[in-house]
């Protein structure tokens, strides 16, 4: 073997690089990676879920890597054989995309101790729903003296120029449009009545926000007084002293399942399962239900309490009565056409 | 023995020093761009069928063309506002003492030291229904009901103009600094008034700076996703948001790729108009 200066240098560099980036050579020995959402989700998971998981699993190493659903899908898609993420968290729309692209492992239901305790809507064999997101009416109690009770209240003449909505980019915007369509005789397959209703809402519209987060800013700035809104987002605003209240409309609050999935070909399949189990336990769900997190639980063994019991539901039976679930498989089929139509028609 | 090495030409430089940057660009800019182009040449979202369908869809759709048009127009408006407001500052900079110069440069640079997101949120507070402008006008009794400033084209133009202002002012300061102050005096002593001096001497000589500033401001304004969506809202659709919607929400990557390529070409066209003007003005600039 001939060793010249150049090959020696290359070898030294390679060894150095392997030392500096151990991930290069030991890809399969990385810790469990959980891609949660950014913001309040990350805070809640860091404070509650991760400690519970580590306690139950002999301090197993794990990393939170918060990112949007679409980024999770893109990252896993880019390296299907050796994905950089083990556990994904998704809203209903992206969850179906991930399942459709064959990126998730079926949940080992028969091995799970908690799956059967979940309320029926949360039992998804492709990945259970440990949390619900709830959309109802949000209003400023200083400007709106009689609390609204129905989605139809948004059309009241007294709210001329005071209503805010979001466009259909968000789960919230799309889900709300479907609910409005249903109220006027439409369905997930037919949102025409919803678009007609939007047309009639125009005089009342003060703003169409680009995302639900911007809606919060508009409340803070007094730009709008009433809007469809996410329960958790409102609690965060309320805690910061912004005058906002949440009510579940009598048509039912829209509930989105946030599902959690084991990524296909994950090198940490067993730990991924354990993490999801931890998210389903009554203990973790109870802690997350209490302030400051106020996340709606899906395990029927959790006794509802606090703000959630006051505003949403006292127990699972009432929760089922008051929540409406939507068929996102149907919604996804036409969502792009709706977004295009919204782009064209909604100009204020 | 030996031949004396040929004297190195001291006016030429090896390209070797530029190689790392060139390589960086090749790997992280040119390659993804080619990939984007390749993706845009597919008719289906999975990227299996070749065709020009995405381009046809965009170019035959009045709505999409409208989005492109309004984006290019937005850039022109912002650039015009920046030029009109930025030029006097740059002009002033060349005519004050060093202490004031430091203050002016600090004021010009200050916005660059805060994040775009923070600056944009500040504009939401200023333009809002109970914001500074509306509150002032109301307390003065000029208006009864608050004006709608947020989520309007006016709001976006004003906010973007402030956010991108340094990109205009800095090249202008440099260009005006290169003009020999004696030319002003000469012009005046030959009988030209201040306005005549400005239009015949200062403005032509500062053209290279104006063009550089316009190019930078224009490119930054039309691609400013954050400011456009936060101040413009969800119903004012510009190209960056349109792109985001297609790629991120709808996962329609080939169409999003086609939008990017079309947008890129449109911007390149505008920029090349600027640079052509710049080349034509070089005759003036060189004289300074």
Name the poorly predicted regions of chain B: none
User: C-alpha Rg of chain A, in Å?
Assistant: 23 Å
**Alpha-carbon distance between the two ends of chain A:** 76 Å
Kindly report how far apart the N and C termini of chain B lie.
52 Å
Sheet with most strands of chain A = 10 strands, mixed
- Measured by DSSP, the beta-strand proportion of chain A falls in 15-25%
Fold and architecture overview:
The complex is a heterodimer of chains A (about 350) and B (about 290). Chain A is of the alpha/beta class. Chain A has 13 helices and twelve strands. Chain A has helices spanning about 5-20, 40-55, 70-80, 90-100, 170-185, 190-200, 210-220, 230-240, 270-280, 280-290, 305-310, 315-320, 330-345, and strands spanning about 30-35, 60-65, 85-90, 105, 130-140, 165, 205-210, 225-230, 245, 255-265, 295, 325. In chain A, the strands form two sheets. In chain A, strands 1, 2, 3, 4, 5, 8, 9, 10, 11 and 12 form a ten-stranded mixed β-sheet that branches. Chain A is globular and about 75 Å long. The N and C termini of chain A lie far apart (about 75 Å). Chain B has one domain (about 60-285): Orthogonal Bundle (MetI-like fold). Chain B is about 75% helix and about 0% strand. Chain B is built from 13 helices and no strands. The interface of A and B includes residues 208, 222 and 344 of A.
């Amino acid at each position: 073997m001939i060793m010249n200066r150049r090959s020696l240098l290359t070898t030294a560099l390679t060894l150095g690089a392997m030392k500096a980036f151990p991930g290069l050579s030991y890809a399969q020995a990385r810790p469990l990676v959980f891609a949660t959402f950014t913001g309040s989700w990350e805070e809640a998971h860091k404070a509650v879920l991760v400690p519970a998981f580590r306690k139950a699993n002999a301090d197993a190493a794990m990393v939170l890597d918060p990112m949007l659903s679409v980024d999770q899908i893109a990252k896993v898609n880019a390296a299907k054989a050796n994905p950089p993420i083990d556990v994904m968290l998704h809203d209903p729309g992206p969850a179906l995309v991930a399942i459709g692209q064959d990126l998730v492992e079926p949940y080992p239901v028969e091995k799970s101790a908690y799956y059967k305790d979940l309320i029926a809507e949360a039992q998804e064999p492709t990945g259970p729903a440990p949390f619900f997101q709830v959309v109802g009416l949000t209003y400023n109690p200083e400007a709106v003296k009689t609390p609204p009770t129905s989605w139809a209240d948004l059309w009241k003449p007294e709210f001329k120029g005071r209503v805010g909505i979001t466009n259909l980019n968000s789960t919230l915007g799309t889900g709300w449009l479907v609910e409005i369509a249903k109220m006027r005789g439409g369905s997930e397959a037919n949102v025409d009545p919803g678009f007609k209703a939007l047309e009639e809402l125009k005089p009342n519209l003060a703003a169409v926000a680009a995302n639900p987060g911007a809606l919060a800013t508009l409340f803070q700035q007094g730009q709008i007084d009433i809007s469809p809104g996410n329960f958790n987002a409102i609690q965060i605003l309320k805690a910061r002293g912004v005058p906002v209240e949440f009510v579940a409309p009598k048509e039912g609050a829209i509930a989105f399942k946030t599902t959690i999935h084991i990524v296909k070909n994950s090198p940490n399949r067993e730990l991924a399962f354990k993490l999801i189990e931890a998210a389903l336990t009554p203990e973790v769900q109870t802690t997350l239900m209490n302030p400051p997190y106020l996340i709606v639980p899906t395990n029927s063994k959790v006794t509802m309490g606090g703000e959630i019991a006051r505003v949403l539901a006292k127990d699972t039976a009432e929760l089922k009565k008051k929540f409406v679930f939507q068929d996102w498989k149907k919604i996804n089929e036409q969502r792009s056409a709706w977004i295009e139509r919204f782009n064209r028609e909604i100009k204020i | 023995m030996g031949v004396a090495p040929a004297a190195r030409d001291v006016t030429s430089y090896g390209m070797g020093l530029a190689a790392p940057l060139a390589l960086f660009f090749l790997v992280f800019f040119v390659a993804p761009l080619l990939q984007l182009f390749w993706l845009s040449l597919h008719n289906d979202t999975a990227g299996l069928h070749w065709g020009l369908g995405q381009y046809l869809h965009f170019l035959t759709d009045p709505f999409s063309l409208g989005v492109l048009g309004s984006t290019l127009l937005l850039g022109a408006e912002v650039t015009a506002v920046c030029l009109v407001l930025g030029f006097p500052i740059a002009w002033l900079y060349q005519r004050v003492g060093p202490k004031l110069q430091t203050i002016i440069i600090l004021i010009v640079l200050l916005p660059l030291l805060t994040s775009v997101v923070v600056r944009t949120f500040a504009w939401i507070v200023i333009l809002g229904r109970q914001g500074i402008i509306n509150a002032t006008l109301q307390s003065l009794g000029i208006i009864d009901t608050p004006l709608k400033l947020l989520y309007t084209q006016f709001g976006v133009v004003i906010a973007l103009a402030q956010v991108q202002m340094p990109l205009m002012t800095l090249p202008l300061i440099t260009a005006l600094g290169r003009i020999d102050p004696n030319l002003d005096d000469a012009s005046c002593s030959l009988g030209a008034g201040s306005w005549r001096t400005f239009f015949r001497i200062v403005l032509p000589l500062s053209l290279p700076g104006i063009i550089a500033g316009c190019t930078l401001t224009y490119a930054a304004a039309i691609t400013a996703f954050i400011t456009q969506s936060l101040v413009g809202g969800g119903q004012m659709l510009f190209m960056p948001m349109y792109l985001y919607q297609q790629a991120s929400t709808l996962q329609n990557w080939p169409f999003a790729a086609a939008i990017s390529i079309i947008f890129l070409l449109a911007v390149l066209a505008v920029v090349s108009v600027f640079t052509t003007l710049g080349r034509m003005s070089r005759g003036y600039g060189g004289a300074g």
